[in-house]
Amino acid sequence: MFKRINFLSKNAAIILFVTFNYVILFLTPLPPIIWGTFFLNLHLLITVLYYHLYKEEGFSPAITTSIVFFTLFFFIAPVIQVSSVIETGLRFNNYLPFSHNQVVKANGLIFIFMVTLYVSYYFIKIKERVIKYVKPTNNRLMPIVLLGLTTISALIVFFNFETIITDIESSNYSKKISFEFNALILKKFVFFIPLGGLILLTDYLKKSSRLNTNKILAYFFLVGMIFLMFFLKNPFTEKRNALGPIYFTLIYIFVPKLINSNKKFFLFLFSAMIMLYPVISSLTHSTANFSQILKNPEEFIEDFESIQVVFDSLHYDAYVNLLATIEYVSTEGLFFGGQVIGTLFFFIPRAFWTSKPLSSGELIGNYLIERHDFYFNNLSNPIVSEGYIDFGTIGVIMYAFILSYFMLTSKLWIQGSDPLRNIAAFYFSVHLMFLIRGDLLNGVAYFLGPFFAIYLFPKFLMFLFKK
């Protein structure tokens, strides 16, 4: 009995993952070839997850995030979406008509991307020593740096108080994401500066053994910085895709034991992203009450369609936009790097670069509007699509290889002794969910601002005060 309990507790993550996904796959009717491609991709994910949880050394949240993303956006949601379209004879939620060959090709591209990503990741791991660690600055100047960051953060709130209050008073769901350069600088760099201060304050307090004036002041600064952080970044001022990395990072800063291992972080992220949200949504749409479900569990199973509605919405449009990209390339051809150039030079205003490429999400959105009478172009477009639209299958392999390098670098930074690198890498690992979902231009732009605020700006202050 105790052996069984011990076995279940040690293997809860993999058992939960396999069981949940098997239920999805085996309860959803699909054509044999399509079913087989999903089956293949699922077992690749199971293999990677097993190695990640039981064989990989060190904390690697980027791998965890990628597994959860691929499971959610490239397996669970697509299985339900494809089955729903076949059953009803209607179009996908982006109005794209069903094509058997497109689905098989999309699953093949996803398989190629995942194999390249994970093989590259674990191969490059052999050369970890190439990336050197940088020891953090920890000297008598640190209290001055902390005072500087706290003062700057307070001034940011003071000079932007009306803007923040306006954001809080307006509906977050009615706001359109602004991609103006000034707005990006303000919301994605300036408003993230307090997070850099939080990192150094918590690290300073952990390393200070004696209670002295500096330590007491640091505690006051920490409380104030927490207040400023939540005032600037809260559900009334930020979209959910931006709040996720922030709040996960705060948990990692203040209560690291909750998520500082591969098993803990996977269970936390998988439960939150894949199980908790759809189940709650299903319960809220269920016609049976809680006591009826307890007496007759079949009542809940019959409400499986309500879970399908959640995954068959535009919140999970990454896969269907990959299908749309495949169709777009078949009619319009490849861009041969045109799209990635727009991503690399996103910071150049369109007023100076009139031929600047549209983001891939907007490009595919416009195509769907023109070709299939869709109604808006603010779409996601996953990284697999980004590689494919530029260079075809070769691009899918290239982008997977490049992503694996950044994911490995984030792991090495997390294992290092520099707290700024550590937290910046963890933030990247959670932001990866948004980066992979796409489009790439927005994913890169929305990461670089926080990265500069969390890592480069505190380093700049350290350098400045040292001089």
Strand content: under 5%
How many angstroms separate the termini?
65 Å
Number of helical elements:
22
> What quaternary form is this?
single chain
State the secondary-structure class.
mainly alpha
Helix content, binned percent: over 70%
Q: How many β-strands, per DSSP?
A: 0
Approximate shape: globular
Low-confidence stretches: 128-134, 171-178, 280-290
Mean pLDDT: 82
Most strands sheet? none
What series of H and E elements makes up the topology?
HHHHHHHHHHHHHHHHHHHHHH
Roughly how many Å is the radius of gyration?
A: 23 Å
Give a quick set of tags describing it:
467 residues, mainly alpha, globular
Task: Explain this structure.
- This protein has helices at 2-10, 12-27, 32-54, 61-88, 100-124, 142-159, 161-169, 181-188, 193-207, 213-232, 240-254, 262-285, 290-295, 298-302, 304-311, 318-332, 338-344, 360-372, 383-391, 393-415, 419-437, 440-466.
- It has 467 residues and is mostly helical.
- Helices cover 73% and strands 0% of the residues.
- The chain has a domain at 2-130 and 262-336 and 360-416.
- It is built from 22 helices and no strands.
- The N and C termini lie far apart (65 Å).
- Mean pLDDT is 82; it is low at 128-134, 171-178 and 280-290.
- The longest helix is centred in the N-terminal third of the chain and has 28 residues, at 61-88.
- Helix 3 packs parallel to helix 5 and helix 16 runs parallel beside helix 19.
